[in-house]
Amino acid sequence: MRDTIVELLAANAEHASEFADRFDDVQDAQHPEAVTVCCSDSRVLQDLVWGNEEPGRLFTCGNIGNRVVQESEAGPVVSGDVLYPLAHTGTEVAVVVGHTGCGAVTATYDELTGGIDEPAGIEHCVSLLADELEAGVEALPDDIDRADAVNHLVEYNVDRQVEFLKESDEVPDDVTVVGVVYDFQDVYTDRRGEVHVVNVDGERDVATLCQEHPETEDRIRRRWSY
């Protein structure tokens, strides 16, 4: 057995010992407070981002590019793994979690500005993002470098995913949808690992968001207004 597996199993044994009594109230049902849609990048510790160690509190979804969209015979629809808790467990909050330096957004930017050569599965995921980001690439400032362009598009991608959820007839009207960016590259501040709110229910103007949500004013910021 590879050392990595041995180490993972050892860590799981510690987890099982620590968490043995934390599943009593959720063995038969779940009612998570929020569904989070994170990029599956290994640097984004999806539950630890929120300090979450409580089984049943968060319904965590992960994919490259923190997408809420999937293709169906009827066209683009809200991904079932995102929709499930909103439709069946009483969850009333959805959080789209982008992150600085996102590889999926980078690949999409490269595809839209010159083309990429990737396996079919990756190209499919990139194509889903490309449909959302094409207008964003066209709107980028002329004098921007590649790294800055990607981080601008990280925000733009979060905005598009929030918009798709808000406009979907499948998502209940009373669901609050928040878009955030997780920063571990000193792009927003020097506090690595901090989450920054960039969008709430489609509103992305910083001044308006601060006025409407003064309790989180110090966590609201954007790099790109368009």
Q: Which structural class is indicated by helix and strand composition?
A: alpha/beta
Helix fraction bin: 25-40%
Shape: globular
Task: Output mean pLDDT.
Answer: 96
In total, the number of strands is 7
Task: Give the CA-CA distance, first to last residue.
Answer: 52 Å
Strand order of the largest sheet: 2-1-5-6-7
Give me the strand/helix succession. Answer: HEEEEHEHHHEEH
Structure, described:
The chain is an alpha/beta fold and 226 residues long. 38% of the residues lie in helices and 19% in strands. The protein has six helices and seven strands; from the N terminus they run H-E-E-E-E-H-E-H-H-H-E-E-H. A five-stranded mixed β-sheet has the order 2-1-5-6-7, covered by helices on one side. Strands 3-4 form a two-stranded antiparallel ribbon. The longest helix has 22 residues. The mean pLDDT is 96.
Key descriptive features of the protein:
5-stranded mixed sheet, 7 strands, metal ion binding, globular, 226 residues, 6 helices, alpha/beta
Give me the secondary-structure topology.
Blueprint: H1 3-19, E1 34-39, E2 58-63, E3 69-72, E4 75-78, H2 80-88, E5 93-99, H3 103-113, H4 120-139, H5 146-167, E6 176-183, E7 194-200, H6 206-212
Parallel strand pairs: 1-2, 1-5, 5-6
Antiparallel strand pairs: 3-4, 6-7
